[in-house]
Design a protein that fits this description.
With 317 residues, the chain is an alpha+beta fold. The chain has helices spanning 8-20, 23-30, 34-48, 64-91, 104-121, 138-141, 173-179, 228-236, 246-254, 284-296, and strands spanning 53-55, 60-62, 96-102, 125-131, 145-149, 158-165, 167-171, 193-196, 199-200, 204-208, 214-218, 223-225, 241-245, 259-261, 266-267, 270-276, 303-304, 315-316. The protein is 39% helix and 25% strand.
Length: 317
């Protein structure tokens, strides 16, 4: 092995390729030509004397040697980054870039504000803030942490519950004037519902009454959407009743543009979780952001700290 050819730059490139599964994606990430990425990989493989990746026309995958080398490389890079953080912590402000993924509508309306405040407190820290309602492979995409709604079970990631998101039944005054108000949960079956396409079981609402009795009510309607902000617009336009998160509509409730229906009945709250890539959890700037989010999440309307409230209900992704 030509040890002089095994550079940190080449190891980083290899790790990124392994996580992204694509040389072209890494070239775009690094803003270099794909030939540069290919050359760095080939030089590393030549120095080691073994193929690290198996290439096809669509993607690259780790060989057995590559899997072992990847595991060690991640450890080495993590130690280097932590050493740099510790050195910087003794002499200056934390710096570097954090990559975070967030549920789209929550990110637009609330998490973005928290990120701005975080950067005001730590001006040397950069943030790549991705908004999507799709499930993201954090390791493969090179993301440090993600904010997600709903119970999560990915055992390969660290999970920290930030709180629970209150949900309400709401509709616009115009819709209620045209279609009538609700007096019991069973009245929902004769109304138009605004439903989420990416929410399992959205055709059935489960509410708990003041007597602790559970009510299961069919919930239909002509409109389904796959984005919270589109649902918000539909509510404003009087397209129907929605079972929605308070943080999505709190300002509209305050302005009288929406009304809470059946306030004595409760929909189950939904966990708001922070998913953390274990290898990134020890990095100082990532720890700072985690602590900041835990500290500030109570400023978001409708996010309750502590245990989940009564009932079981929908499971938004």
């Amino acid at each position: 092995m030509d040890k002089s050819a095994v550079t940190i730059e080449r190891i980083r490139t290899f790790v990124r390729i392994a996580e992204r599964g694509s040389l072209s994606a890494v070239a775009r990430d690094l803003n270099v030509g794909q030939s540069t990425v290919t050359r760095q990989l080939q030089e590393l493989e030549a120095a080691i004397g073994a193929p690290l990746l198996s290439r096809t026309t669509r993607r690259v995958t780790l060989t057995d040697e590559g899997s072992r080398y990847y595991a060690r490389s991640v450890q080495i890079l993590r130690l280097l980054e932590q050493a740099g953080d510790e050195a910087l912590g003794a002499s200056g402000a934390p710096a570097g870039t954090i990559r975070i993924s967030c549920t789209a509508s929550f990110g637009v309306l609330h998490a973005s504000r928290l990120i701005f405040a975080f950067q005001d407190r730590y001006p040397e820290i950069g943030v790549d803030f991705g908004l999507t309602d799709q499930r993201v492979d954090l390791v493969r995409e090179g993301v440090d942490l993600a904010i997600r709604l709903a119970p999560l079970t990915d055992s390969s990631l660290k999970l920290r519950t930030l709180g629970h998101s209150q949900r309400l039944l709401v509709a616009s005054p115009d819709y209620l004037s045209a279609h009538g108000r609700l007096t019991t949960p069973q009245d929902l079956s004769r109304h138009q519902g605004i439903r989420m396409m990416n929410v399992a079981g959205s055709d059935m609402l489960i509410l708990q009454g003041p007597d602790q009795q559970t009510h299961r009510v069919p919930f239909g309607g002509r409109l389904r959407v796959d984005h919270g902000l589109a649902a918000r617009e539909a509510m404003i336009a009087g397209r129907g009743i929605a079972a929605t998160h308070r943080w999505l509509v709190d300002d509209l409730l305050a302005a009288g543009r929406l009304e809470v229906l059946l306030p004595e009945y409760r929909l189950a709250a939904v966990p708001l979780n922070l998913l953390i890539v274990p290898e990134r959890a020890g990095i100082a700037r990532v720890r700072l952001l985690i602590d900041f989010l835990v500290e500030q999440i109570g400023s978001v309307p409708g996010i309750e700290r502590g245990a989940q409230r009564v009932g079981t209900g929908l499971s938004p992704r």
